[in-house]
Design goal:
Protein name: GrpB family protein
Pfam families: GrpB
InterPro entries: GrpB/CoaE, NT_sf
CATH class: Alpha Beta
Number of helices: 7
Distance between the termini: 48 Å
CATH topology: Beta Polymerase, domain 2
CATH architecture: 2-Layer Sandwich
Oligomer: single chain
Structural class: alpha+beta
Shape: globular
Organism: Marinobacter lipolyticus SM19
Length: 179
């Protein structure tokens, strides 16, 4: 499979939830270290977020990375160099985002990493970390989220945007609850 075919497969791959893999934190650490080496001084912090950052939680096997920058113009300036460093993105999709930029890394026809560039300390930064931490510390919410993700993955198997949108209400509710 050539690179273009691999990318197209990754873009259109189905949503699949698999059991937790103890190797996910190491995959995050390797990519974080690679980014810090390639772009010294560009990131104020890099965090592992999403379901792969929650021990024991089933997830899509894609490592979600939150990279904090000092301002959105820095994020925009990093897009082309990141694309030269094995990421890809949709400029059209990024133009629709407020307060963040999104990139994807892939290999062998499947997504391996999602990179979310946001302003360090911003509301977007705080909310993503708060949700990860809520899942790490509240087993009941984590179990509900996992159960719902399986339902959404079946319902939106070929619609990643639909799957992501379906998670939104749950995430907002979990962040507003005091449990």
């Amino acid at each position: 499979m050539d690179e273009e075919e691999s990318l197209n497969r990754a873009i259109y791959e189905e949503v699949v939830i698999i059991p937790y893999d103890k190797g996910w934190p190491l995959l995050f650490e390797e990519e974080r270290d690679r980014l810090l080496h390639l772009f010294p001084g560009s990131f104020l912090a890099i965090e592992h977020i999403g379901s792969t950052a929650v021990p024991g939680l089933s997830a899509k096997p894609v490592i979600d990375i939150l990279a904090g920058v000092d301002a959105m113009p820095r994020a925009d300036a990093l897009i082309e160099p990141l694309c030269q460093a094995k990421y890809t993105t949709s400029m059209e999709f990024n133009a629709s985002l407020v307060g963040r930029r999104w990139l994807m890394r892939w290999a062998e026809g499947r997504r391996t990493h999602h990179l979310h560039l946001v302003v360090y300390g911003s509301q977007e930064w705080q909310q993503r970390l708060a949700f990860r931490d809520k899942l790490r510390t509240n087993a009941e919410i984590a179990a509900q989220y996992e159960q719902n993700k399986r339902v959404w993955a079946a319902e939106f198997r070929s619609d990643r945007e639909g799957y992501t949108a379906a998670k939104g209400d749950f995430i907002r509710g979990a962040l507003s609850s005091s449990t």
